[in-house]
Structure formats: structure tokens, C-alpha cells
Specification:
It contains 15 helices and 18 strands. It is of the alpha/beta class. The strands form two sheets. The protein has a ten-stranded mixed β-sheet, sandwiched between helices. An eight-stranded mixed β-sheet has the order 5-4-11-7-8-9-10-6, with helices on both faces. α3 crosses α12, α4 runs antiparallel to α10 and α10 crosses α15. The protein starts with a helix and ends in a 17-residue tail after the last helix. The N terminus and C terminus are likely disordered. The protein binds zinc ion. Zinc ion (ZN) binds next to α10.
Length: 514
């Protein structure tokens, strides 16, 4: 899409401000609709568009009705109660674990209790087990005799174990892939440390995802690149913010035929410590890890339908992913997304609302280390995909909602005006046009043309807790969760009743994971 096309088609009389946020192969355009001059005219446009919908026999799409849905969400603690069950009671939900299976049962039962029609999509998931991890510096310049410095580490998902007695080897510190190649001849037999600190300044200024991807590239691809050059193990500085001395786990990627080496995340402070010591002379590290992979396990996506009143075959998905990493209880990543989606159905039920189209709550399995739930869905339900009219996924934490991100055609953006009018009192006023799926689990749906949406939330502190031992219930502000349910409920209602948005051009399925 081009900026010129936007300018021609969107909010013609509204003052616009564009900022480009160039991320890895992405261009995002932010429409700041809360601009003080623009807002009154914007509101007017919103009302006019909303009124035009009222030509229909009912007023279900009026701003007043959308506001009623918003207010019901803001007065409900349903989602927070479900969040406490998934996190405090069920716990970490790594694919293949007992807790992940318990979460499937719990979510299915809760959605049934709401009166929805519940189904399960079978998913074969990897069963990787973290085991035990220990790392210590055993030699470095100036070390007092007999002293070991213990390090804060966590195995990366998919990492194999070390030999039983561990690995003791010299550490090679690099800061990027170019430096790794520059020192390629020194890699063999060593432990490679990628020390690339998370840029909190970017996160503080609205570019948290950029900051994350800058660091996470070493977590995704660093161990495999080091292994190809003969490294015996790989460590990466934590891909996240926060000054809490915590490692942040996550996927590392191996390609077929790679010799897999033990790979772990190090707390940023420990990565920086090794970097400083290595500038003084040789550093040796002892590493013991028992992580390993077991045979795949049968798991499930949970689906729950609130059947459409007049177009039941047409489906609007509202979703989050049920699995989580295992260092904490996955409160923000992504129990919040699942319970916010459940909260949408709870609000509709509470108000006795019957959408035209079917609202389908989906709790995806295995987003974190395989995305197999998302792929199983599009395979199992292939015949019905042409009737999927939109998909929402919340998977960016529980920060305060600021707007909506959408992978839709630019000419369709204007039709969301009444949604923004209804949500403006919550401070939800930014529309972000994306040219890729806003959620990993709904990316395979985008690839077959289904427009995608996500709540746009404040992520400046999301990566403080993301994939770390700090992702717990106490970090979730109940008011922000209510706001998120409100955004998703108003948007879901609109998508389930308004005119169908244009389908996206079909593309190759995007792989992903976070
Ligand atoms: Zn997630």
C-alpha cells in the first residue's frame, strides 16, 4: 500500500499525522486520531457513519449500543477471575505439560458454562522439558583462588542437554552476527555468548517490538549459527527489559541437519559481566543442562461458538494462546489474551446479545514453540475458511490499550469509525494499519485472506516480564484488562454485525512465534 492511497481514501477532512516505524520487513503507519484539532471532526464522521448503519432494521451498530457493550465490559471482573484460575491455580502451560492439558479442560468447561457450543481441534505438540540448568564462571582474570561466580540462566526452548558432567570451555563474546563471522576461526570448541542488550530507550518511546526483535534475532538464530562454526554451547543476553537479573527464555530455531548444541538465556547483567571480564583476558565457564525433548503429545485448540442469529456459517474469531513458557505462569503471555477473548463472550451473554454472525472464541495451543495449533486449525477447518470474515488475537500483554492494529485493506479502515467513537472515552483512539498479521496464531488465516485485528496496547514494560519468571498475575492491572475486554468486545460485535470487510490477497503462510 502507499501513503498516497491512504491519503486519498481515509478521513479526508481529518488532520492526519503519520509516523513510520520501520521494523524488520514491516512498515507501520500510525494514525493519531486523538489529535485535538482532528477529534471533533472525527467524532462527527464517526457519528455520520454510525447513523448510516442505522438504516438497518435494528440499531445494533449504533454508537449507543457499542457504548453499552463497552460499559458492560468495564464493569465485569469475569476475565480477571478466569485469569487467576489459569495462572495461580493451573500455572505455567508449556505445550505437552500437565498444566497445558489442564488449561484445555478448564477453558473448555468455562466456555461451556457460559452457554457456548464448545469443540476441540486435535493438535500434535512438541514436548520439550526444561530440566535443570546451572552455569558458573570457573576462571577469569583476577579470580581469587577457589571462587566461582554463579550466573542466572535459563535453557532456551528446544535446547538439548549438556553431557552429564556438563561442559567447561572458554567463552567467546560477540555482539552481532558480523562479529561472529569475523571470529569464525576461534569458535570451535568454545561457548559463544551473544551480548546484545535490550534497548529500553526504544521501548520507552513506543518501539518495544523493534527493541525486542533486535535482540531476539540472536535467540532465534544465534545458537544454530554458532553450532555451524563448531561452538559447544551458546548463550544469549536476555531478550527483554527490566533490571531484575532474570533470564528470558523463548524459542531457538534449528534447521534440519543442524548439530544442536545446548543454548541458554543469560540475565543481561551477567552477559555484561562476562563481556567486561573477557576484555581483561580469557574467561572459562562451566555449564550443566538437562533439558530434553520427549515424543510429541496430543493436545487441543479450544473453540467455543456463540452461534450467529442470521449468518451462522460466517465466523468472527476472537482469540489468545493458551500455552505459555514455563518460568512463570504466563499471565501476560498469553493468559490475558485468552481470558479477554472469553470475556467478550461473557459480555455478549450478560447483555443477551445475539450477533448476526457466529462469534468463535479460540484458545490456541502451542503458539510459543511450534504454532501447531494455528496450523491444525486451518487444516481441520479448511472447508469453512472462505466463511471466516475476521480474526482478532490479543498477544501483546496487558498494558493499557491505546487503539487497534489491523491487517485490512486501507479502503476499509474508514468503516471502523463508530468503533473508535465508542472506545474514545477509554483513551482508545489510535488506528494502526499493518501489512502483515497482527498475531502469530491468526497469520495462517491472513494467508488465506482473513482480515486480522489486535488490541494495540502500551508495551513499554511488556518485555520486562515477557518469557521470564516475572510473568505473573500481580503484574496485570485489572483495569487495563477490563479495557482490553472492552476493545475486543466492541470490535467483535462490530465485525459480527457490520458489512463484511474485503478479503486480503492470499499469500504464503507466515511462520511465527514469540
Ligand atoms: Zn504470546
Amino acid at each position: 500500500m502507499t501513503q498516497a492511497r491512504f491519503a486519498a481514501s481515509l478521513f479526508r477532512s481529518v488532520t492526519r499525522r503519520f509516523t513510520a516505524d520501520v521494523e524488520t520487513r514491516k512498515l507501520r503507519l500510525y494514525y493519531c486520531l486523538s489529535d485535538s484539532q482532528a477529534m471533533p471532526r472525527y467524532l462527527l464522521i464517526g457519528v455520520l457513519i454510525a447513523l448510516s448503519f442505522n438504516v438497518r432494521a435494528d440499531d445494533s451498530l449504533s454508537v449507543a449500543n457499542l457504548a453499552r457493550i463497552r460499559d458492560a465490559a468495564m464493569h465485569s471482573d469475569y476475565a480477571y477471575k478466569e485469569l487467576a484460575i489459569l495462572t495461580d491455580q493451573i500455572g505455567p502451560r508449556l505445550s505437552g505439560s500437565i498444566q497445558a492439558q489442564a488449561a484445555v479442560k478448564q477453558t473448555a468447561a468455562a466456555l461451556k458454562q457460559l452457554g457456548l457450543n464448545v469443540g476441540l481441534v486435535p493438535v500434535s505438540v512438541p514436548h520439550w522439558v526444561r530440566g535443570y540448568a546451572h552455569a558458573a564462571l570457573v576462571d577469569y582474570p583476577g579470580r581469587p583462588s577457589g571462587v566461582l561466580q554463579r550466573l542466572a540462566i535459563a535453557a532456551l526452548g528446544n535446547s538439548p542437554a549438556t553431557p552429564k558432567n556438563g561442559i567447561t570451555a572458554a567463552v567467546l563474546v560477540v555482539h552481532d552476527f558480523d562479529e561472529l563471522q569475523l571470529h569464525a576461526a576461534q569458535v570451535r570448541g568454545r561457548i559463544v555468548l551473544f551480548d546484545a542488550p535490550f534497548d529500553q530507550n526504544l521501548a520507552d518511546n513506543g518501539y518495544a517490538n523493534t527493541a525486542y526483535l533486535q535482540v531476539a534475532q540472536y535467540r532465534f538464530n544465534g545458537p544454530a549459527q554458532a553450532a555451524r562454526l563448531g561452538a559447544v554451547a551458546a548463550l544469549v543476553s536476555a531478550a527483554g527489559g527490566g533490571d531484575d537479573h532474570l533470564p528470558h527464555t523463548g524459542m531457538t530455531v534449528w534447521t534440519h541437519g543442524d548439530h544442536r548444541i545446548p543454548a541458554a538465556s543469560l540475565a543481561q547483567a551477567d552477559a555484561a559481566l562476562i563481556d567486561r571480564l573477557a576484555q581483561r583476558g580469557p574467561v572459562r565457564l562451566h555449564l550443566v543442562m538437562t533439558s530434553h525433548r520427549l515424543p510429541n503429545v496430543q493436545s487441543h485448540d479450544v473453540l467455543a461458538d456463540l452461534r450467529g442469529s442470521s449468518e451462522p456459517d460466517q465466523v468472527v474469531i476472537v482469540s489468545g494462546h493458551l500455552d505459555s513458557w514455563d518460568l512463570a505462569t504466563g499471565a501476560q503471555d498469553d493468559a490475558v489474551g485468552v481470558v479477554a477473548a472469553m470475556g467478550v463472550a461473557a459480555v455478549f451473554k450478560q447483555l443477551n446479545l445475539h450477533p448476526r454472525r457466529t462469534l468463535r472464541v479460540v484458545a490456541w495451543m502451542n503458539e510459543e514453540n511450534g504454532l501447531s495449533g494455528a496450523h491444525a486449525y486451518v487444516q481441520d477447518l479448511a472447508a469453512s475458511l472462505p466463511d471466516h470474515v475476521a480474526a482478532i488475537e490479543s498477544d501483546n500483554g496487558s498494558g493499557r490499550p491505546l487503539g487497534i492494529a489491523a491487517d485490512i485493506l486501507p479502503q476499509d479502515a474508514y468503516s471502523l469509525a463508530s468503533v473508535f467513537t465508542a472506545l474514545h472515552p477509554l483513551g482508545v483512539s489510535v488506528f494502526t494499519q499493518l501489512d502483515q498479521s497482527p498475531g502469530a496464531d491468526i497469520a495462517p488465516l491472513a494467508a488465506v485472506g482473513v482480515p486480522g485485528f489486535a488490541p494495540l496496547v502500551d508495551t513499554r514494560h511488556y518485555f520486562d516480564v515477557h518469557h521470564s519468571a516475572a510473568d505473573t498475575l500481580d503484574q496485570v492491572d485489572p483495569e487495563n484488562l477490563r479495557r482490553q475486554v472492552a476493545v475486543m468486545a466492541v470490535l467483535s460485535w462490530w465485525l459480527a454485525n457490520a458489512d463484511i470487510l474485503t478479503r486480503l490477497p492470499q499469500s504464503a503462510a507466515e511462520a511465527g512465534g514469540d
